[in-house]
């Protein structure tokens, strides 16, 4: 009997020493501090307002727009934008958990031999990697160059240097693994890295998506890939309540930069993304090959997807009404088709189109400049001489 009680006591001690298993963990990987507010709602708001959820935000850049640690405001721009991100999530977290602690605890943590600034508040945690941002993103970005060339890139606060893209991906993976180690599966939300399905977007949005998907290989993540700037052309598909919640989150992010003396982002262009939520679901083939992954949104995983790693359609694009997938409307698909071909001038389709247009143009020139033979003039009939009559 004493031995049985001793064994039970040891078992209770072991169970008590085990960490609590998180109910749900959702990871949001962003290029900038205001990406999830604009493009990944109502998902983010729903996650934050559920006290059983743990929400992890990872930011490649802090949106310094080339100013690095400077700026003309009362505080550096990157700090204002980081404050806006934390302010947004705290507002949503407070809807679920009323807390008297209004302080946002920030500290530097060492992850994969790199110092990263971390903020925690209620059920949300933010990791700011602070890679350098640029002001003119329509040409190229520093992360874009870093992605394609193995050149060292230093963070704007000067505390870390990344020597390769794989090192950055490994750091993102280390954060994800640390935050999801107590759960069997988790959700990853990020912007779509594939230009075919996310055209005309900021390069660092797609770079964040690429880093996130690469970092989650084999981790059994349920991945949602959102569209970014292209949604400005799409019709609104959120309910009035969802649109109000999204507006509140972005307004709080914008207020932080406005209070610090920077440009007002609560304007027409940014407002054009509010009320819109377009995404596709993606399954990591490595996870599918490793084990059987449960269905996503009651949608069975196709068996033929466990092939080579590629960002192809696994499910049709959809929007967030009741979290159901639905095919885009004809207008959206046409806009996406046009925008996609605008960005792919080197494919065979556009080459064929260009050759047809060139051929038609040359044919028109040939027809216009071809010399025409002059019309032969009909000979004018000569007047017949009148016979002369002589009278005797």
Automatic annotation (TrEMBL):
The keyword Signal applies. Residues 1-22 form the signal peptide. InterPro entries: LmbE-like_dom_sf. The chain crosses the membrane at residues 350-367. Keywords: Membrane, Signal, Transmembrane, Transmembrane helix. The keyword Transmembrane applies. This is PIG-L family deacetylase. It comes from Hymenobacter lucidus. The lineage of its organism: Bacteria, Pseudomonadati, Bacteroidota, Cytophagia, Cytophagales.
